[in-house]
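[stage:ingest] chain + small molecule (phosphoric acid mono(formamide)ester)
[stage:ingest] validated
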Amino acid sequence: MKRDLIEVTDLSKRQILDLLSLTFKIKKTPRRFSQSLKGKILALIFKKPSTRTRVSFEAGMIQLGGAAINLSSSGMQTSRGESVKDTAKTLSGYVDAIMIRTTSDEEVFELARESSVPVINGLSKSYHPCQALSDIFTVCEKKGLDEKSVYDFDWSSVKIVFVGDSNNVSRSLVNLSTILKFEFGLMCPERFLFDRSFLAEAKKKNPNFHFTSRIDRKYFSDAEFIYTDVWASMGDEKESAARRRIFSKYQVNSRLVNMAAKNVSVMHCLPAMRGQEITDEVMDSAKSIVFQQAENRMHFQKALLYRLLK
Ligand code: CP
Ligand code: NVA
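[stage:predict] done
[stage:export] tokens:
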């Protein structure tokens, strides 16, 4: 049966732990895997810009002995009206997997339904599963885990506080917290919070999920991980100025970082709008692990591709 990764909830806890363990192995001994996807081809469809996702998937495929074809959507016949269904059926005859970054969730669902090869969501309106999963690998590294100890880890010992928008990245992190049961706190202005039914459902699945529209100093005091993302995601640019005003209290700056645990790590999926959601001072500090996160996108996605294609 073909497998897709549309959102983290497509995976069981056991499958996630297996992927994290494999990521440790691949990162430690990349040469052992260098021919493992020989002859396999991944198509990459981008309807939104990307630096990390594109390069990490391409480089990852090459490092596994396979190849990647980058398809800019403006050069495809979909830009002239060819259907997602016909594109899916055509590409399935040429390549072994398809990664898509697009504006709508429905397009990813449809592509997955109509393709006979695995489809990976490389970011859509509501989800960014590769980001959330590779970030949790970075958390595992910070916690000193390895390919074996990741299976026995007590996830309730992890506390991540996300300060910022209810967007694709924070949604995938919330969903991941409902599977692994780590503590996840979301601090987001009231009018941008996820809808009530999503929040209630997440809370039911993970009692360690909390949300508030306040910057809660007490809640920060033992946070080991602070996470932020842009205030206006791709597609929200028209609202940038209004969002800058509303989110200004939610900036990850030294004052906020000093409220958290001494050993706190600061996370960001990137790209960052320096001076808005995160200051230079924090981003360039020793507490920042943003480039470790960026690098780990590739190691994690190699593990994912290996599992889907081998
Ligand atoms: N974090 C992330 O997905 O980065 P890109 O937009 O550069 O791919
Ligand atoms: N929330 C951001 C993530 C970018 C990787 C966006 O969708 O633009």
